[in-house]
Amino acid sequence: MLEPSKSTDSSGMDEFGYAQTLDRSIGKFASFAAGVSYISILTGVFQLFYFGFSMAGPAYAWSWPIVFVGQLMVALCFAELAGRYPVAGSVYNWAKRLASGTSAWLAGWLLLLSSIMALGSVALALQITLPQLWSGFQIVGDGTGPFDFAMNGVVLATIMITISTLINAFGVKLMTRINSIGVFVELVAAVLLILALGWHVVRGPEVFFDTAGFGEGHDLGFFGVFLIGAMASGYVMYGFDTASSLGEETKDPKRTAPKAILRAVTASFLLGGLILLFGILAAPDLTDPKIGAADGGLQHIVLSVLGGPFGKAFLVCIVVAVVVCTLAVHAAAIRMMFAMARDNNLPFSRQLSKVDPVRKTPTIAAIVIGVLAVIPLLVNVMQPAIFTILSSISIVLIYLSYLLVTVPMLRRRFLKKWPLRDEGHGEAGFSMGKWGLPVNILAVLWGGAMTLNLIWPRPEIYNSVPPFEWYFQWGGVLFVAAVTIGGTLLYRLKIRHQTGVLAEHAAAVAAHPSSGAAGQPQPVRAGGGTEDGVEPMEDDLEPQRVS
């Protein structure tokens, strides 16, 4: 048992049952930058434009505002949660307060796996841009060999992940400083790019209302190929919860994190949407096959429109965006691993939750995440089809983990148990008020529809290159089912019996009138303390222990 303390932790972390062990140094812009860099429009839009365009042509751009509206509903729910629980591993910790221990662990498990795979996918984006900047970046072969493109991508991505590991392991101050500078460069570059492309517009907006023959021969016509193309937008606009995942390291997080979440998703929508709009309107020739090719895409349009020096200057900014996006994805994955490990909810939890006493960052977790992210990249060399499946699945897992928050949140709204009252966590930093219920309903409907669209076993996504095997096409369904069922069994059969906040991370809980005998501290649960205002549910009814 912990000894009762005479005073509470001034950082506010004792409200959630944890001691303040991380470095609280992140300001408002750095918090906003974390969300923006994770979404990273210059990374995602430039990396996936070719795919959306090749599927549905110019009209695929309509998917951008559609995805934004859906994700904004989710972001509003997250902002409300961030205003109450700005804790590391945000989705995992939110699910703990809304649902059962099993659901919370599964939310963290799925998001952790997806973040590790996403880290490799983001770093691979360097292969699309760097060789177009300078042929010397094509380190492996000359780019014409059967494996040159894939192998070189793995080399560049591995170098990037190694650099990201070193920066994240050094401390959050260095990471956020680099990230903030990179995001500032990215935002300025995005605005200048929009102005430059807008100046070179050669066609009118009617092109967005012309299906241009796309969808002919498809079972669902243009709607069918539009749903596929829309995945290019769905693959970009997520990760805004990163601002809250860094909440333990943010100043005044209950007010800062919600604003950062909403500003990040809104700014990304506006800038990304205008780049798509003017990029398509300024393209010299929309029938150019390079626009729909992996080694061309939006980069090809920029180089064609702006010419060598100016075009390449913008490509440099895209590289900067990829770098800071890698840093942000890595940082978010580290916080998720740390949050689960300090609750003793992972193997080797004591090591993974260890915080460097000088740098005040989970150094071991940073290294482990980096190593694990490189392993799937090796698959990309000989079997790019498998890596494509893994990359697609990583996004499915993110949407599923979000549903594991929005669904129980909606359930509590229907039961009149949200928003919580008199919960002992002080004033909430953000509330939707009467709009909470309709927004939450839309967030759940959107998340379910998008998950179904992403996981649907389409050959264009899961079996696009040889060898054409049934298990590749159904790879998304099979893998998601395996990690979900396997993760649930792992938690139910083993991990839940060891769950409890590790002693070195547990807050000293002061004596409380409701604690029974005078002077006796209340038990610390993995749910985040005893004053979280949420009654135990399902397997949370089992008392937790302090390790």
Automatic annotation (TrEMBL):
Q: Where does the sequence pass through the membrane? A: 29-50, 62-83, 104-129, 149-171, 183-202, 222-240, 261-283, 313-340, 361-379, 385-407, 435-456, 471-491
Keywords, A to Z, come to: Membrane, Transmembrane, Transmembrane helix, Transport
Query: Which is one GO molecular function term here?
Result: transmembrane transporter activity
Q: What is its main location?
A: membrane
User: What topology in the membrane does the UniProt record assign?
Assistant: Multi-pass membrane protein
- Segments of this protein annotated with the region Disordered: 512-547
- Report the locations given in the UniProt record: Membrane
Q: Name one GO cellular component term.
A: membrane
Quote the Pfam families the UniProt record gives. AA_permease_2
Work out whether the entry's keyword set contains Transmembrane helix: yes
Q: Where is the composition biased (Acidic residues)?
A: 532-541
Q: Which domain of life is it from?
A: Bacteria
Which InterPro entries does the UniProt entry name for this protein? AA/rel_permease1
Descriptive protein name:
Amino acid permease
